[in-house]
Amino acid sequence: MPQPLTVYPLNAPVQSQPFDLIATLRNSLRSAAIGLEEGDVVAISSKYAAIAEGRIVELAQVQPTAQARQLAKRYRMDAEITQLALEEADHVFGGIKLGFLLTTKGGVLSPNAGLDRSNIPSGKAVLLPKAPFQLAETIRAALQQAFSGRLGVILTDSWLMPGRYGTTGIAIAMAGFQPIKDERGKQDLFGNAMTVTQIGVADSLAVCAQVVMGERDEATPFAVARGAEIEFTDAPLTADVVSIPWRHCIYVESLTLGLLPADLMSSLKPHTYSREFPS
């Protein structure tokens, strides 16, 4: 039987300059009187981790290129943010005239390559951590040495689920446990063989953590998930472990190379809840 999952939020000082992330986390655990136990998964805000690394940019010092200015005008963006997004993104798909480019960064589909201007003084932007998987492993090693137990670590961020209002959590990096639980080849309740199901354990835990961490003025950049059924690993993890090839991604492939031909599209019955989608 599955066991209950408990998620403990941890407060920490508001930061806007580089600081010692691991010492701050340990102080937060001490203040909350929470000692880490075998199997705990520690969730850390990727933005908080990025601030600790000094991944803060003064927008006034950014020099937009002609390409950035052109895209900024097209998508009604700040030219400086557009320039940073182009520099940080692994790939740019396009954008919307609400001030966002759709990009990939570290295997995650994200607006503006994960750049964030919230919870940081005006005129600044925070980039994602430089090497998030290495950082997660460094934090895990330090915590395990201090608490003498096998632990997991995830760096959390928020993202927009395709076709839905509202943000939800996602693990941009993890260490210490297998982030994917492969159910293929197993049987469901009726004995049917599972053929495609793989459970995103790390992303699911990031969602749970995001609920208690918040995104506004909660000052809760850490959380501890206790009771998760995880499979430990000491193997180095990378984005390739969790990022699906685009040709297998229902969203990317369907809306690019897999887009329906115009003649077939026109013959289909219009969707009854189509929302401002051009015909």
Explain this structure to me?
It is flat, with a radius of gyration of 21 Å. With about 280 residues, the protein is an alpha+beta fold. The N and C termini lie far apart (about 50 Å). α3 (about 65-75) crosses α4. Strands 1-12-2-8-9 form a five-stranded mixed sheet. The protein is built from nine helices and twelve strands. The model has no long low-confidence stretch (mean pLDDT about 90). It has a domain at about 5-55 and about 130-245: 60s Ribosomal Protein L30, Chain: A, CATH 3.30.1330.100. The longest helix is centred in the middle third of the chain and has 16 residues, at about 130-145.
Q: What percentage of the residues does DSSP assign to strands (E)?
A: 15-25%
CATH class placement of the domain at 6-55 and 128-243: Alpha Beta
On the 0 to 100 scale, the average pLDDT is 91
| Count of individual beta strands | 12
- Lateral arrangement of strands in the main beta sheet: 1-12-2-8-9
CA-based shape: flat
* SSE succession: EHEHEHHEEEEHEEEEHEHHH
User: According to CATH, what is the topology of the domain at 6-55 and 128-243?
Assistant: 60s Ribosomal Protein L30, Chain: A
Structural class call reads: alpha+beta
Distance between the termini: 49 Å
Q: Helical region count?
A: 9
Contiguous low-pLDDT stretches (5 residues minimum) are none
What Rg, in angstroms, do the CA atoms define?
Answer: 21 Å
